[in-house]
Amino acid sequence: MTQNEKSLIVIVGPTAIGKTALAIQLARHFSTEIISADSRQFFKEMEIGTAKPSTEELAAVPHHFINSHSINTFFSTGDFENEALAKADELFKSHNQLLMVGGSGLYINAVCNGLDKLPDTDLTIRASLKERFAVEGLESIRQEIALADPEFYAKVDQQNPQRMIRGLEFYLSTGFKLSAYQTNSKKERPFKICKIGLNMDRNLLYQQINNRVDQMMATGLLEEVKELLPYKHLNALNTVGYTELFQYLDGVISLEQAVDAIKQNTRRFAKRQLTWFRKDPDTHWFEPDQYADILKHVQQAIKPVQ
Description:
Blueprint: E1 7-12, H1 19-29, E2 34-36, H2 55-60, E3 63-64, H3 77-91, E4 97-101, H4 105-113, H5 123-136, H6 139-148, H7 150-155, H8 161-174, E5 192-198, H9 202-218, H10 221-228, H11 243-249, H12 255-278, E6 283-286, H13 291-301
Parallel strand pairs: 1-4, 1-5, 2-3, 2-4, 5-6
């Protein structure tokens, strides 16, 4: 087999749009496996609130990077780049095509384009910033990184504690701005990449999001969050579906308010995901029910060069 016969088919799009179902269809068609690029589904302790594939879906096609790590371990974008590329190299020995599916744009970008090589940072600074975040919350860290590296601050998700801490950790460790090191220089990969984006009418998507949250609550999300209450300070749990129920359990808001907030914050998250993915000109967009058109496009895109 020549190298140009190896292809990574990437499925992106907002939460609750049907990426998993499409990826399984394509993986079964190509008799291959799926690499998950969802930064929340890595964590084995977070099941219901991360909308992981069902037991049946996981049985239908081999999945990688689901339940692969603990919330107690620090798993960075760079770690995922290294581990996912190693897994892809292993799987390409027995498959010509692989699927990668997820809604975490940074992780997908890391595998497709690579991350910039950065100097090492001081892990004691990281630990102290995490402790500061646990005690003071995000706002003081956000204000400091806004002053230290306004270019980084303008581009990053300012609600994401891990990103905020990373930017400030880098600045305090090195004395340099993280933004100055982010050249976005694309690395060559030894396989083709075909990117499929899923989108649909926004009102329908928002209805699917609301329905999914109701389903999560019906299947025990509150009980899952109660069990994770001792770990609520961890970065992995500072995410939609968990922070709102922690507020309820702390007596800050009612359960009804918490559920409404999960729906609203998930809708906002979906909007941010679409904004991110639409910036990539290499992504070809379809609606979730256009399977025949998607398959035709993929087959054409991954056709070996003669």
